[in-house]
Amino acid sequence: MVPVDPNEGRVNRVVVGGGEASSTASWTVVSNATDGDVGTFWGAAEQWSQLSVPLTGATVIDSVTVALSPDAAWEDRTQSFGVQARLSGGDWVSVAAEKSYSFSALTGNYVTIPVASFVGDEVRLVFTGNSSVNATGGQVAELRVFGDLAPETSNDARGADMSYVTYEAEDGELGGGAQAVGPNRTVGDLAGEASGRRAVTLDTTGAYVQWTLTEPTDTIVGRFSIPDSADGKGRDGSIDVYADGEFVVRLALTSKYSWQYGDETNPTNNPSDGAPRHIYDEAHTYLPRTIPAGATLTIKRTEANPLPVTVDLIDTEMAQFTANPDTSKYVQPAGFTQQDIQAAIDKVAGSDQYAGVYLPPGDYTVDGTLWVWGRAMDIVGAGPWFTLLHAPTDQINTNATIGVASAASGTQLRGFSYWGNYVERIDGPGKAINLWDVSDVTIDNVWLEHAVCGFWGTNIRNVTIQNSRIRNMFADGVNMTNGSTSNTVRNVAARTTGDDSFALFSATDGVKASQTGNTYENLTALLPWRAAGLAVYGGGNNTFRNIYVADTLAYSGVTVSSENFGYSMDGFGVDGSTVFSAITIERAGGHFWGSQTFGAIWLYASQEQFQNVEMSDITITDPTYAGITVSKNTAANQDIRNVTLTNVTITGAQLSGDAWNDGSGRAIWVKWGATGAMTLTNLTMSNNNQEIANDAGESFVINRN
User: How far lies 54's CA from each of 59, 127, 564, 586, in Å?
Assistant: First the structure.
């Protein structure tokens, strides 16, 4: 691997409290690795100065390295330490003595972690980037970091940091009769349901859209729409892919898993039930050769492609392969059926001789529940592009799922993709990964598609979901409920979910326990076609940060609601504040439940208490109807209390000009019937039809600083 150019670094700061500044410091920085490289190390020592206020006692920062390559699991190489702080880009972390925080970081990066062991008060660290430090406490270090950095909380870097590059069709070069469509916000329309509300149609033979690749690729994912069949069961089509004018592959398309019809609250797969929605799906293929950066990649309709195709976007990436970590410790299935996989799991469960199960490249058929039981194990595939778990392709709506028993707490699931066969929403079954009463499970680098729900957690603890993608669901992408505590969802991208992309629902109908200490961070939610990008229903001491939401079709971008949906549920604030920070929302909001319109953010007080909600560093751009809507279930009689919004920017809340025009054009809209108060600090407004509309009058107080 070529060493990273030192001139491409940036300055970051680590502040360590306590003691005298008496020794030197050295930093080791590593670059991003590819194809199993060990990585290139490059270090620099910079300016040091003493803190003005030392802490009590001695503070020592030990060097600790945790490494990840694309072909290896996380390996903790800690020599010795007393307290470990979990750090992410730009965060302040306070650590109490003898308390431990878990750590994980972005797939594909080598990361080193400062670890503090000390006596006395707290030590505060700020850490951005991938580095390690040897130092004596009481110093301020200016570090020039080389290589890949963790996501920052600036507006242009919010959301998940994924391995693929996305190219929007409307940004490509069009030819052969290709037509750009949009923008609009119409449900069931080719532009209205596209990202950025624009797309490109290839209606005629010879029509194409093409891009110059910024990075090499040996894969392609496309978000497409083709016409549905008259009976709603789907039609098959194709589109051709070229590189620098040479044919590469024919990409198979289908409308089988898209095109819902009728009632917005309960659409069906039957065209006779009414107007359409959810008209896009995705297709993917591993390419027969690598297309280099700088090449022209073309999507073209030829005589071999029977149907018109609308292109929304494509993703490209170099697929990363993972070999069997240890052939003596990882059992491989004898074949490619569910029974073969289960037999391998059973073998590991029954003997501590093995570390886990390795799923070699291939298509595996899963037609029921894969059950991980007995003890903790590592179930690892060759990578999402190579290890594919399929529900039977000759069936529909098969309840194929992965479950983990309580006795298998500590299990890892990583490096595979899951492909369901659902064609409509059926509540209850259809959860791709379903966790119940389990702890310390890590789900890493998985790809889920065409299920009802992606990840579902009931009474789960210390579970981590990271570095994964969720596509084309009929309900939630991630939902945790019933006492789920101290879990982390990080660096996950969801696209086109049929309910909330990321949800936390503090129901207590099954487990009467609080839902606290959860962190959702570095997330991207694009194009949910029913419900929100992020939704939080009750709970306390939960954190949501560094999140990007765009192009919600029918609902808010972020929902904060005390609606209990008929279940027993904890309201907000019993166990501490619910905190939102560093969130960007673009082109979000919609109409649902008949004539009701929703803002990019919706604050809703319903049956349960609504209090102790903090939102900061929020950017809302071009909302469909309003920037922030505040409303109340008047029959529930719950006030909105202790709600603060700080550093909020709202731009472009204009009149919609459609059938819901009367419910549009407000940057902040407090609807009639709302009671309580909220405090706005450092609110920035521009290009809005109306800045603040308080239709609730004196019953709702807006304090603006």
Answer: 10, 20, 49, 44
Phi, psi for residue 648 in degrees, rounded to 5: -110, 130
Strand partners for 372: 404
Candidates 412, 456, 463; CA nearest to 430 is 456
Strands 590-592 and 596-598: antiparallel
* Between residues 513 and 631, the one the model is more confident about: 631
Q: Which of 164, 159, 170, 115 is nearest to 137 (CA)?
A: 115
CB 359 within 8 A of CB 413: no
Q: Is 403 helix (H, G, I), strand (E, B) or coil?
A: strand
Map tokens 């306070």 to a residue.
Answer: 94
Alpha-carbon 547 to chain mean position: 8
Q: What is the rounded distance in angstroms from the CA atom of residue 694 to the CA atom of residue 696?
A: 5
Nearest Cα to Cα of residue 451 among 496, 406, 491, 485 = 496
Q: How far apart are CA 456 and CA 319, in angstroms?
A: 27
pLDDT for 459-517, tens place per residue?
A: 999 999 999 999 999 999 999 999 999 999 999 999 999 999 999 999 999 999 989 99
Beta strands in 235-390 (DSSP E): 236-243, 246-254, 260-261, 276-277, 281-291, 296-300, 309-316, 330-331, 356-359, 362-365, 369-372, 378-381, 387-390
Angstrom distance (rounded) from CA 523 to CA 470? 11
94: exposed, middle or buried (Cβ count in 10 Å: 0-12, 13-18, 19+): exposed
Residue with tokens 């409308």: 255
C-alpha–C-alpha distance, residues 513 and 500, integer Å: 23
Contact 553, 529 (CB under 8 A): yes
> How do 431-436 and 401-404 pair as beta strands?
parallel
Q: pLDDT by residue (tens digit) across 230-256?
A: 999 999 999 999 999 999 999 999 999
Classified as helix, coil or strand, 170 is: helix
pLDDT exceeds 70 at position 10: no
- Residue 672 to residues 168, 514, 638, 656, 667, Cα–Cα distance (Å): 40, 32, 14, 20, 16
Round to whole Å and give the CA distance between 133 and 139.
12
> Residues 524, 159: contact at Cβ < 8 Å?
yes
pTM of the full structure: 0.80
**For 207-225, b where at least 16 C-beta lie within 10 A, e where not — what string?**
bbbbbebeeebebbbbbbb
Tokens of 82: 């007393």
Q: 271 CB contacts (<8 Å, ≥6 apart)? A: 228, 230, 231, 232, 259, 261
Is 117 in contact with 81 (CB distance < 8 Å)? yes
Q: Where are the beta strands (DSSP E) in 346-430?
A: 356-359, 362-365, 369-372, 378-381, 387-390, 401-404, 412-419
Query: Which 3 state secondary structure label does DSSP give 6?
Result: helix
pLDDT band at 378 (very low <50, low <70, confident <90, very high): very high
Q: In sequence order, what DSSP letters do the residues of 33-91 get, joined into one string?
A: --TT----EEE----EEE-SSPPSS-EEEEEEEEE--TTS--EE-----SB-----TT-
CB 131 within 8 A of CB 29: yes
Residue 410 CB-half CA count within 13 A: 9
Q: In what order do the strands lie in the sheet with 296-300?
A: 173-175, 208-212, 296-300, 236-243, 246-254
Distance between start and end Cα atoms, the chain: 53
Closest CA to 564 of 669, 488, 486, 635: 635
Q: pLDDT value at position 157?
A: 72
Residue type, 51: L
Per DSSP, the residues of 230-273 read TTSS--EEEEEEEETTEEEEEEEEESTT--EES-TTS-BS-GGG
For residue 450, give the nearest of 400, 404, 416 by alpha carbon.
400
Task: Kindly state the average pLDDT of the residues 100-113.
Answer: 30
